[in-house]
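Design job #97: recover the sequence.
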């Protein structure tokens, strides 16, 4: 979750370099993510303003979906960042299996919420949206997360990458594998229409009180994780879905 930096005059006097603090921060995040601990918490997020959970904000017409249940009672909306390591961990440990197990019973919507500390989040979102314009959103979404280390992480396998050419090469490879028109794929990815969809996701998320990723809503109510492992979070989310389906 993005936070404003606060300069501490005490630590500043001790002379730690910016690189040292960056290394410390990366190591802490890596330990938490690799250990399976939930590294985000919405308790410090501002409350969503009145009406922010409305369908027109969370799930406007034309939103990308992973699974649909026309007329069904449950809609899940996830605001995500494709380069966010916790979003990738959610995909691997929670949402991928939920999408499969609840297919046809819930509508699962995904919205873009790229964070500024992830330099390849916007290019990845552009690739996903460009694939959507050729009817292959779900397939590109899967490839971006399933192949995450090859484009999203640096050579050390720990830090997020800022290597845009390498990432674009991977995105082009996915597009070819999906049978997309590569020329159109490039044009769409760079188009104002795609950028507008990304910007709208960020604006809608902000209006709904989203400050970090992933943030999930079930029928307009923010999902508040209470467990300290992904297995516990998976059980909690499934419990909420089952309760909503039974209502």
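Job complete. Output follows.
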């Amino acid at each position: 979750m993005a936070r404003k930096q606060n300069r501490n005059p005490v630590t500043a006097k001790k002379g730690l370099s910016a690189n040292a603090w960056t290394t410390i921060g990366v190591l802490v995040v890596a330990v938490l993510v690799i250990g399976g601990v939930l590294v985000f918490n919405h308790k410090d997020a501002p409350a969503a303003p009145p009406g922010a959970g409305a369908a027109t904000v969370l799930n406007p017409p034309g939103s990308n979906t992973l699974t649909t249940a026309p007329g069904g009672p449950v809609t899940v909306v996830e605001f995500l960042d494709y380069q966010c390591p916790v979003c990738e961990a959610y995909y691997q440990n929670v949402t991928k299996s939920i999408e499969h197990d609840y297919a046809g019973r819930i509508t699962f919507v995904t919205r873009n919420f790229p964070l500024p500390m992830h330099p390849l989040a916007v290019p990845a979102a552009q690739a996903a949206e460009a694939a959507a314009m050729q009817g292959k959103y779900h397939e590109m979404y899967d490839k971006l997360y399933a192949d995450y280390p090859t484009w999203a992480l640096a050579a050390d396998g720990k830090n997020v990458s800022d290597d845009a050419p390498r990432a674009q090469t991977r995105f082009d490879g996915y597009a070819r594998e999906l049978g997309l028109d590569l020329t159109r794929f490039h044009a769409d990815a760079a188009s104002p229409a795609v950028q507008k969809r990304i910007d709208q996701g960020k604006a809608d998320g902000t209006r709904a009180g989203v400050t970090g990723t992933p943030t999930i809503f079930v029928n307009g109510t923010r999902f508040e994780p209470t467990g300290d492992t992904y297995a516990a979070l998976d059980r909690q989310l499934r419990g909420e879905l089952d309760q909503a389906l039974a209502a």
